[in-house]
Each structure stands twice: as C-alpha cells, then as structure tokens.
Glucosamine-6-phosphate deaminase
Amino acid sequence: MKILTVADQEEMSRRAAEMIIDLVRLKPSAVLGLATGGTPEGTYRLLALDHRKNGTDYREVRTVNLDEYAGLKPEDPNSYHTYMETHFFQYVNIPSEQHFLPDGTAASLNEECEDYDRLIDNLGGVDLQLLGIGRNGHIGFNEPGTAFNAGTHVVKLSESTRQANARFFGSVQEVPERAITMGIGTILKSRAILLLVSGPSKAEAMSRLLAGSEPDSNFPASALISHPNVTVIADAAAISAAKRKVGSDA
Ligand SMILES: O=P(O)(O)OC[C@H]1O[C@](O)(CO)[C@@H](O)[C@@H]1O
C-alpha cells in the first residue's frame, strides 16, 4: 500500500483526478469504480473542469458505483444516482447506458446484488476503484464485521454511519437503514484501488492504516493491505490528526 501525504483536500483531489485522467487517456474504455460521500466531490469537480478545458474523452468509459441506499428511487434527491448525476455525470460525456449503480428499489435486493457482481465481471472487472473511508474504517458500505470475501450484498447501516450521513438528509431518521454495497471481495478484484482520506474526522481510521495492522474484519479498510495495487492519498489534516491520536493512545 502506497501512502501519499498531500497538503490539503484540494491537492488530494487534484492528484486523484490526475490518476483517473491518465488512466482514461491510456485506456479509453476503462471501467471506473466510483464512490460517493463528501471526499470525492473535489475530484469530480476537477475531472469535469478537465473535460471542459482539455476534452478528455469519456465516450467509451464504463462506470460502476460502490453502493446505493435501499428504498431510494434513482430520482430521489438523496440517492447515489442523483449524487453521481449532480457531481459528475452531467459534466462529462459518458453515455448514460454506461453508468451503473445498484438499484435500491429492485423487487429482490438479493438478486440485484448477484446481478451487480455478474455485471462487473461482464464488463471485464474494474480498472480503478475510487474509495473513501468511513470513520469506523468502512469502505463502500461494508461495516466492521463484514467478511473480506463477500460479494455485493445488502447491509444494515451502523448507527455511526447513519449519523455521519445525516448531514445530507433532513435528519438521521430519514437516512435509510439498509443499503446495497459492493462487497470487500468485489472491491479487492479491482486491478487498482485509490483510497482518499481527508480531514481530522478520519483520525482513527487513518491511524490504523498508518499502523499497517494485520487484516482485521473489524476494520474493513485493512482488507486493502493484501491488495497489490493500492494508493492512499491522505491530506495533512487526516495524517496529523492520526499521528496525534497515536501519540495520545501511547
Ligand atoms: O467522504 P465521506 O462523506 O466522509 O464518507 C466516507 C465514506 O462513507 C460513505 O459515504 C458511506 O457512508 C462512503 O460512500 C464514503 O466513502
């Protein structure tokens, strides 16, 4: 796992956008695994800017998102379908039939999960998976305790995740209790993984990544240790808060 420390969230976003642009230029039909949440918003903004200014071409790109809330229709303002449209898809030229997200309203969520893993395989697998990290170390919506070989599945969201995401909804009660997420096993099949970590709220998770602990299912991001091609871009705020945490725990 390669850990790059950068000055701030803007530099983190710029480095991440550069990696994605380089990949798309090298492999125009790349399969991009995409993430939601606050962390990647700057990266999407810079990709949109680059597309407008430099014309990076996304016509052949396919995208698969990590997760979606159960029960939210694609057009719901809080769905991850809407997030992706708002922050990225509307600004670049990926044909809409090449955007894939799990359907949180499918009649059978379990079948939807199986279909989603099949879809990713049929696309030839993910070339680069973008990830954020939850305060408890979750990746996608894989909460602590998830098996590292799990495929796409339905999860019950932890209280801390619902609290953290309440800022996007009116209140914590409105945050759905369940979601569909790519499993850690699905994520680990990606050929390359780019994990973005920003801000002091990620101190606990970042300190565990820095410690390079053994894979532990209670800390989902530790699954990434076993993957041969993981880059972590962390801003100084996350790194220094993590180091302070290690110091105060010692
Ligand atoms: O980037 P944020 O908003 O801090 O969220 C971190 C992680 O939590 C999630 O939003 C899920 O709770 C992930 O999609 C994201 O990677």
User: Anything to note?
Assistant: Strands lie at 2-6, 31-34, 62-65, 67-69, 99-100, 128-131, 153-156, 178-181, 192-197, 230-235. The longest helix spans residues 9-26. The radius of gyration is 17 Å. The pocket of 6-O-phosphono-beta-D-fructofuranose is lined by residues 35-39, 132-134, 141, 161, 165 (CB under 6 Å).
